[in-house]
Amino acid sequence: MTDIPLLSHRIGGHPASGGADWQPVTDSASGDVVARVPMGGADEVDRAVAAARAAWPAWREASLAKRSQVMFAARELLNARRDDLVGLVVREHGKVRGDAAGEVQRGLEVVEYVCGLPQLLKGEYNEQISGGVDTTSIRQPIGVAAGITPFNFPVMVPLWMLPVALACGNAFILKPSEKDPSASLLIADIFAEAGLPDGLLNVVLGGREAVDALLTHDGVDAVSFVGSTPVATSVHHTASRAGKRVQALGGAKNHAVVLPDADPDVTADALVGAAYGSAGERCMAISAVVAVGDVGDLVVGAIADRLKALRVGPGLDETSEMGPLITAEHCERVAGYVDTGALEGAALVHDGRGLSVAGHEGGHWLGPTLFDHVTTDMTIYRDEIFGPVLVVLRADDFDSALAIVNANRWANGTAVFTADGGAARRFQHEVEVGMVGINVPIPVPMAYHSFGGWKDSLYGDLHIHGPDGIRFYTRGKVVTSRWPGHRRAGVDLGFPTSS
Ligand code: NAD
What we know:
By secondary structure, the chain is of the alpha/beta class. It has helices at residues 42-61, 64-80, 82-92, 97-114, 117-120, 156-167, 182-193, 208-216, 229-241, 264-276, 295-309, 328-343, 379-382, 398-407, 421-430, 466-472; strands at residues 9-11, 14-16, 21-26, 33-39, 124-130, 133-141, 144-148, 171-175, 201-203, 222-226, 245-249, 254-258, 286-292, 347-350, 369-372, 389-395, 410-411, 413-417, 435-438, 454-455, 458-459, 474-482. The strands form 6 sheets. A 7-stranded mixed β-sheet has the order 14-15-16-13-12-18-19, sandwiched between helices. The longest helix is centred in the first third of the chain and has 20 residues, at 42-61. Bound molecules: nicotinamide-adenine-dinucleotide.
């Protein structure tokens, strides 16, 4: 293994070594080890925090024009290096090229959003809140922010956080997933090339040990986390107890409700893309369909027809529509859920187990899988599977379908398929979920809106990127001012009111 490259952290603008141990990073389509990731800990976090704190004061004082110029330059370089980013995502994550290109594009759009930083950071002003007195509300950076990101969007999720934090005048420490960390390193190098001063964007590689050190470090002011719900819960508790501002986005079970008047073919096209794109490893993947009335048989039949033709293969092969899963362990875990679903009595309509891809036998393969007649007490409904497994539940009417969605502990995204505007309006109004699609299966908000779920899909008050991102990475200050020249009123010990 020693001939396999050992990756470096990025601390203070330079590659840095450190970490007691390393873990393999695999090419998901072949199973080959392509890199070794050092597992940083408290020591590396200390060094990164020291670099960030040293760099922050000057950046905080940098003009808005200077900060947005760096974002413009980073946007150009990221755009120019788009293919390199896509290549790293395909190799380490496994998603197919078109899908990886989509994630890079959505990340890039966050950088484009913060290029308009001076406009986004405009404050508010009231002249004459009292005689000769004015009030200004401004937002200032919070200091050093940390971001902890999952494996499934190795470019987009870091770019949900770091451009916003940096543009707002903060320093940032990124702890990417240890399963596919190389894209984060390239992003840090690109920002350095764009003119971001050393120390403002640090990358500490590793896993739990590095995260634990960040959550309680005195030099960290805010934590953004995206990952599974159990870790999100613990990150939210630990960092909040340590006095930090926290947003922790967790897992999901996203439902699509299909009403009887939905077109079965159009709906099946949308559902296959939403359930099996990125091998179901998307936090906004549709993983449960609630079919209302007679439409169930039609939609299940139409999905099953499409699965027979779906091409599973390595992401670099332009004909592949779905790639491998992230690791052999995760693949086994997902296959275990298929076993459980069959044992629990769900109808296995399409079975993805036992798939082998010629020439790529070492890859982490599991074909698309479809269960029908699933009930809410089954493990395959209750758990987040995070793989290419779609479960279909049946409901008699709109109200019982809505009740199923609203009783679920997760509430990231949801969609309704219907031609009835009144039903769609009711769904939008009554569903208890953070992001809603109406005939749109994956309603991921664009960069200039904020992304976030409800209930066990997000802990904290503010969603990520968009206007909430600007609020998260800044804190408010309100200035009330009076200048000499007004009439002397004398001493007054009463509570001030407007006059
Ligand atoms: P994960 O929770 O295993 O890991 C996320 C991050 O936390 C990684 O950087 C990892 O190194 C670190 N980590 C893992 N275990 C930890 C522990 N015990 N203590 C501290 N840190 C730990 O998630 P994952 O498997 O990388 O990603 C998939 C999960 O992320 C899914 O549940 C998915 O739904 C969720 N996700 C949610 C969103 C969202 O916006 N809500 C977006 C993407 C992914």
